[in-house]
Amino acid sequence: MALNWFRFASPAAFYPLAGRLIPLFWVLTVLALALGLYWGFFETADRLGGGNPQKEYYRIIFIHVPSAWMSMWLYVVMVSWAAIGLVFNTRLSFMMAKAIAPTGAIFTFLALWTGAFWGRPSWGTYWDWDPRLTSELALFFMYIGYIALHSAIDDARRADRASALLAIVGLVMVPVIFWSINCPDPNQCAALHQRSNLTTIEGNILFAMLTMTFAFWMYSFATSLMRLRSIILMRESESLWVRELATIGGRA
Predict the structure, then answer these.
(1) Residues 32 and 216: beta-carbon distance below 8 Å
(2) In a 3-state reduction of DSSP, which class is residue 238?
(3) What does each C-alpha distance from 96 to 6, 71, 233 come to in angstroms?
(4) Is residue 6 part of a domain?
(5) 209 close to 61: Cβ distance less than 8 angstroms
(6) Which of 26, 90, 202, 214 has its CA 20 to 30 A from that of 61?
(7) What share of the chain in percent tops pLDDT 70?
(8) Structural domain span for residue 184
(9) CATH number of the domain to which 131 belongs
(10) How many domains does one find in the chain?
């Protein structure tokens, strides 16, 4: 018998499903994080690829690069849910977008922070108005703007739609971030950042980096679903199923 996934579009149906998935995502987060950090610090050489030796501080890439990837990926996912909410007027889609935003903002801040610590010994400064740094900072402001706008409007439906439109406008920052150092003509990329080229990275380093990315991915699922369950309870507080859930919890 085929599973009807559309029934999980209802907050009442998705709430218990999210509760069952959260522990799984936390377990995967811890396991992948432990493996990624161990491999990055103890099983990798001091060479990124091409035979060029690196200082020990290069290991910050195991946090920095996955954080930067997640900051862009989560923004795309957030905008996707917001757009689905606008098109199909689905409550859960707007809730999902709102739940993702804080985690995306955290990863964007982490990418900027670790990038600054990389920049000081590499470039001699914590901050330079490099195209990649500047566009990543703009993405962080888009996350903060989305969260602030949503919080500033009392009516939930109006807040969902207004913040969704803002998020869609800010989607332009994702390709800007990517092409800021990956433009077709390298001479036109006036950036301190190296060009993104995973094929030149030493195998063990790439494994550790991708494992950390998977860990952050699982963390995003876990935290977003936890936040989503709280949002569902607040939005659906007048629903019969939430009242019954509260009654059962009170008796327990």
Answers:
(1) no
(2) coil
(3) 15, 16, 13
(4) no
(5) yes
(6) 26
(7) 80
(8) 16-251
(9) 1.20.120
(10) 1
